[in-house]
């Protein structure tokens, strides 16, 4: 069973997207065998958890059917859980979460925090699994139109606190809840940087915090002239690792990354710099 106590070092959640169109690595691991092999490679590189997703959340992505999402993720969840890996299922659908837990998933990671499927909270409450509640303002198709805040950090924290309240009222135990500010979801680049700068305020909610900045576009725009194309996702792992270092220094519970090795290295540096107890 995974600990939800924030340790001195964040857990590393390795991303396995079994999708043809994820922004960050779309199509690379679409076949089950490739996805399983990739998951094993991430474990070998030091991942503590593997986050398996069958639906791309990139802006404008077409939603697969439930049957298609199940077809994509179940063989991968089953095989990697059978290896003994701690697997989280990245889904907004209760039916997919239920089947994945049945197949061995230990965590449900829902980018909608239970908003996209009214059955999700009951399923998670009954399953008793940890539940990642990410800050979300609607499906990717038009989410950026809702990237409007008075104070993005205060608003995101208030929204997350409200969701946590509602989910507890729907039977999910507080000690099973993890929050995530949802970098890149209904957020501009400036919103993402502000959330990172003031990460302490998210941590102050008093729940484990998952940070998912990996390969997101705001990192691709670093050092790129205004108006030019951002660097491709494959060139964003170094800056991702530095955000993992930052997350570690602020006490995040876990970081969700595509490239595990570079983040493990960054967390090793954070460990070395930590005042010895
Ligand atoms: N909890 C959580 N889950 C997520 N799932 C997908 C993506 C974006 O897609 P990707 O898998 O291609 O990174 N980002 C997050 C995130 O930031 N937090």
Description:
- By secondary structure, this protein is an alpha/beta fold.
- The protein has a domain at 130-222 and 234-266: TIM Barrel (Alpha-Beta Barrel).
- The protein has helices at 32-44, 66-82, 94-102, 120-127, 152-169, 189-197, 199-203, 217-220, 237-249, 260-273, and strands at residues 11-17, 49-53, 86-90, 107-110, 131-134, 177-180, 210-211, 254-257.
- An eight-stranded parallel sheet has the order 6-5-4-3-2-1-8-7.
- Strand 4 (107-110), helix 4 (120-127) and strand 5 (131-134) form a beta-alpha-beta unit.
- Helix 2 runs parallel beside helix 3.
- The longest helix has 18 residues, at 152-169.
- The radius of gyration is 17 Å and the shape is globular.
- The two termini are 27 Å apart.
- Bound molecules: pterin-6-yl-methyl-monophosphate.
- The site of pterin-6-yl-methyl-monophosphate (PMM) has 19 residues, from strand 1 and strand 5.
- One of its GO terms (molecular function) is dihydropteroate synthase activity.
- Belongs to the DHPS family.
- This is Dihydropteroate synthase.
- Keywords: Folate biosynthesis, Magnesium, Metal-binding, Transferase.
């Amino acid at each position: 069973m995974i600990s939800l106590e924030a340790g001195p070092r964040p857990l590393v959640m390795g991303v396995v997207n079994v999708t043809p169109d994820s922004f960050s690595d779309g199509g690379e691991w679409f076949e089950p065998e490739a996805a399983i092999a990739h998951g094993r490679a991430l474990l070998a590189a030091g991942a503590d958890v593997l986050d398996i997703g069958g639906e791309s959340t990139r802006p404008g992505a077409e939603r697969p059917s439930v049957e298609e999402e199940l077809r994509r993720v179940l063989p991968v969840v089953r095989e990697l859980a059978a290896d003994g890996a701690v697997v989280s299922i990245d889904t907004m659908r209760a039916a997919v979460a239920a089947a994945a837990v049945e197949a061995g998933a230990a965590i449900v990671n829902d980018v909608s925090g239970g908003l996209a499927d009214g059955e999700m909270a009951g399923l998670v409450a009954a399953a008793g699994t940890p539940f990642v509640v990410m800050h979300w303002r609607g499906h990717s198709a038009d989410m950026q139109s809702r990237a409007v805040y008075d104070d993005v950090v205060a608003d995101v924290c208030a929204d997350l606190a409200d969701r946590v309240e509602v989910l507890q009222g729907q039977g999910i135990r507080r000690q099973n809840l993890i929050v995530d500010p949802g970098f890149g979801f209904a957020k501009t680049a400036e919103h993402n940087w502000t959330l990172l700068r003031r990460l302490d305020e998210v941590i102050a909610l008093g729940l484990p915090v998952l940070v998912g900045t990996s390969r997101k576009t705001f990192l691709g725009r670093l050092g790129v002239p205004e108006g030019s194309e951002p660097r491709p996702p494959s060139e964003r792992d170094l800056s991702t690792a530095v955000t993992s270092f930052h997350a570690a220094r602020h006490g995040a519970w876990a970081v969700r990354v595509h490239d595990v090795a570079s983040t493990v290295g960054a967390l090793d540096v954070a460990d070395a710099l930590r005042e010895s107890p």
